[in-house]
Amino acid sequence: MRYLVLTGLILGGLLGYYVLWSHLADQVAAQADAWIEGQRRQGREVSYESRRLWGFPYRLSLTLTKAKWDDPRQPLAPRLEAEEITAHLQLWQREHVIFDLPGRQTAIWGSADGAERRVSLNAERFRASLVIDGAGNWLRVAADLTKPRLQGPGDGVVRGEWTAGKLLLHARRAENVPPSLDLAMQAEQVMMPEQAEKPFGRAVQSLRLTGNLRGGFYGNTTDDLLASWRDGGGVIDFSTMALTWGNLRLAGTGSLALDRDFRPLGAMSGKMSGAIKVIELLEANGLTTPQQASAAKTSLLTTDEQPDNNGLLIRHIALTAQDGRLSLGDDPLLSLPSVLPGR
């Protein structure tokens, strides 16, 4: 009799747990439907080919295939497409969502000349996470990509194929007034397209950035978004800037903003290895004049090379971006164009 009672309690507990899981799964489905309906009321379009709820008994998982989102109201009519999206939630921690995004992810938008721009992304593994508060506001978002492959549009700065061994992205809401975000990015073994061959080669061994972005972005076009951020005192303060790209090895701290012509405006101080060779490459590729290169090298030679913790010989340097020029100390090195195409 005791075994029968124990068996009955176990079966009753399992049945109760399944009923609870089913109830929570229905809530997740209802929340997804409510979000889609909310998007549609705002003039956006959301669709998918199929939907599946699964994950029993450990988690709640929702998979959408051939998912699409677009906003035809916007001037650029942005559109997002995904071959498959799966959202995972723990029953006891539903404010933390884990996403798996296998297959191709595509972003499509228009342009002023009427042409369509398209960027597609594939990765061996693409996992992202989102943490929200009780009101549905996002607090943290992160992405972890293994062997991503980005195919840029036919023209523009990011045209061609970009690949990497590893890409990590992280953003955390810091303040609401004024808007402030803590950001971090790490990329390893990046291979850029052919147009990036000069001056240091297509292969970037590593790039690591951490900092805080202050200021909000408002408007419908890229110009409006950047202008609102710039005019509102927008700035990125970098606590870490580390780059290994061919002969260039650079590490330091700095800040970055935009001037009235949307050109980079900021300063950096830190250490550089192979600085003389870098300047020679800039001169050889016509990015700086012989006079500018000579002045910069003369200035560098007045400072001593010192070994860092790894025994690498480095020089302490100061870089400034102002009035459309990048300068090493007081010596102009090269011109800086607008970050907006066509300007």
UniProtKB/TrEMBL annotation:
Pfam families noted in UniProt: DUF2125
Q: Which InterPro entries match?
A: DUF2125 (IPR018666)
According to UniProt, the name of this protein is DUF2125 domain-containing protein
Which species is this record about?
Ferrovibrio terrae
